[in-house]
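Progress narrative, Year 2. Work on Glyceraldehyde-3-phosphate dehydrogenase from Thraustotheca clavata advanced from sequence curation to structure prediction during this period.
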Amino acid sequence: MAPVAIGINGFGRIGRLVCRAAFANPNATVVAINDTFMDLDYMVYLFKYDSTHGGYKGTVVAEDGNLVIDGH
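Result:
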């Protein structure tokens, strides 16, 4: 069965939780995140250092204008 492709509209608290849940599920893959009001470096920071759910254990970087989480 192919993974379910997920697009996230907004990268606030809920969008980040959906993204974390998708990366924890082998049957889901995040294909796009849309947030026109958030800078890419700030997206990296917020995903890495969540004050409620703790720091993300994997890698989170900005590469070539893209948010790259665990190499994806």
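The chain has one domain: 4-69. The first helix runs from residue 13 to 24.
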